[in-house]
Design goal:
By secondary structure, the chain is mainly α. The protein has 2 domains: 1-74; 89-133. 63% of the residues lie in helices and 0% in strands. α5 crosses α6 (94-128). The longest helix is centred in the middle third of the chain and has 38 residues, at 51-88.
């Protein structure tokens, strides 16, 4: 099934529509985007209902988000160093040191959980594509579910097969 990514580039937008997309990406509301771009509020809303415009806008939003994520990843090592310095600074208030330690533990745990989830996704994709082999046994640490267990009994934030999301 083709995705937006497969069919993008075939849409032709007018310069005003491109200007509207730029304004939509840079402004917090459609109203403000309309003011900044000097394009009518209703016009922008009408364009947002058009498949070609909406498709290009979604792609532009994804690209902008990907750039933001990339930027945060570049600063991640510095953030970890800053937390480590705060955690090890004997002159820092105790609360600051504890707070830094808690964040370090939290990030470490979340990193492990993300790796485990990625492994599970790989396993599921391998099974779905017809490969019967398991890439990694990602369910080894998951709690066993009984036939009378229901998702209603799971704690808030519980993931299928075990694990918790932070609320």
């Amino acid at each position: 099934r083709p995705t937006d990514e497969d069919t993008l580039g075939t849409e032709i937008l007018s310069p005003r529509q491109e200007q509207a997309i730029i304004a939509l990406l840079n402004e917090p509301t459609v109203k403000r985007a309309a003011e900044v771009s000097n394009i009518g509020y209703r016009t922008i809303h009408r364009w947002l209902e058009e498949p070609a415009f909406a498709k290009v806008y979604r792609r532009a939003r994804r690209q902008a988000f990907a750039q933001a994520v990339s930027l945060t990843q570049r600063y991640a090592p510095l953030a970890v160093q800053t937390l480590a310095k705060a955690m090890n600074d004997a002159d820092a208030p105790y609360a600051v040191r504890v707070h830094a330690a808690v964040y370090m533990l939290k990030f470490s745990r979340e990193s492990i959980e993300l790796d485990e989830l990625a492994s599970r996704v790989d396993d599921l994709e391998a099974r779905a594509s017809g490969g019967n082999q398991i890439v990694a046994d990602s369910t080894a640490h998951a709690p066993k579910r009984h036939s009378d267990d229901t998702d209603d009994e799971a704690p808030p934030g519980a993931l299928p097969g075990g694990g918790l999301l932070d609320a």
